[in-house]
Structures are given as structure tokens and as C-alpha cells.
Amino acid sequence: MKRHIPNALTCANLVCGGIGIIEAFHNNLLLSCALIGVAAVFDFLDGFVARLLNVTSPIGKELDSLADMTTFGVLPSIIIYQLLMESIPDLTGMWKAYLALFIAVFSALRLAKFNIDPRQSDQFIGVPTPANALLIASLPFIARYHEETWRPIIVNTTTLLIFTAVMSYLLVAEIPLFALKFKSFGWKGNEVRFSFLAVSLALLLGLGILAVPLIVGLYVLLSLVLMFTNNSKS
Length: 234
Description:
Layout: H1 5-25, H2 29-53, H3 58-87, H4 101-116, E1 123-125, H5 129-145, H6 147-154, H7 157-172, E2 176-178, H8 191-207, H9 211-233
């Protein structure tokens, strides 16, 4: 039975994504975004449990990518689509909302590259789809609970289109990013991961949902610093 546990967790991720898509089309964006957060927990646990139980398998890897494509590729693009539809003032500009599908397209490219790229066994090349999805999921919450300050910026056609273009590029950019994959829980070898998680927790406790964009930005920035540091040593 234990070899089916990781796949069951992956399927839970997929179910969250499916429900999130349905709710997004009913304009329940906050519920859709919350489900991305729940799915991210399942996505972390499936790999962690698979390594813990030593039951990794090729089908598990493929299933994980298919689930991620739904939850962290299609669902985020629909969330951006709905935000764009809200921001576009007239029918003549409605075509711009379909540009949100670039998130889904580049997420698919990102996941396909991950499956065949041997460099990504202990690191990522390009922003991981869960990180991108969590960033997108934070936007409706920020617009809702910090309405006066951030809603006019977030629910803005130009802002959303620039954001879509930048994040689509970062999904497939040749930027090495460290992975939050723990092979052990000792400090040695995990210094960066533990430090990043500690700072992220502090930001969440201090800033709430506003911390999510900062955490994703910190993740990319810290990875770039590590890349330049390693290159200098080499």
C-alpha cells in the first residue's frame, strides 16, 4: 500500500486544481486561490513521502507533472484571465484577457523541460510552477484585503499583461534556482533552505498575504546570489 501513498497525494493536488478551475469560472477567485495553497502542500508532501518511503517511480513523476499542469498551470492562467476581464473596460479589448493563457503554455513548457533535464535533479532551471502559482494566487487576496492601496495596481490591464509576460519568461528562463528538497533535516547542506524558510515565516507572520510576492522575489534573488557566488568560486 505504501507505494500508492505519494500518488494519492498527487491526485489530491489534482483534485484541488480541478475544483479551483470550476470555482474560478464561478468568480469565486479567493476559494480558487486558497486551493492552490492547499495543493502546494500536497505537492510538497508527495515528493517528500516518496523519498521517505523510498517508493519513487516513473509513473509518479509523470503524474506529478500532469497534476501540476492543471493546478499550477491552467488554474493560475484562469485567475489572471478573470482579473483581466474585470480590468478591461469595454468589449473591444476583451481579446486581451486570452493572453493570460501564456501562463498555461509556458507552465507546460516548464514542466516538459523539467522531466527531461538531468540538471534539475537537485535544483530548478526557471521559476517552478508552484512558486508562480502561489504568487498569482496572492494577487486576488491582496486586491481584496488591501483594496485602497493595491487593487488599482493589481486589477489593471497593463499591469496584468506585463506581469504575465515577465512570469511566462521566468518559467523557462535559464536561471538555476535552489530546490526545497530535504534529503535530511540536518543543518549542514540545508543552510540556505532553512534560512530561506525562517525568513519566509517571519515575513508571513509580519506582513500576511503581502509577504507572498516578497518571498517569491527573495527566492529568485537568493538563487541568483548563489549562482554568482558558485560561479566566482569556480
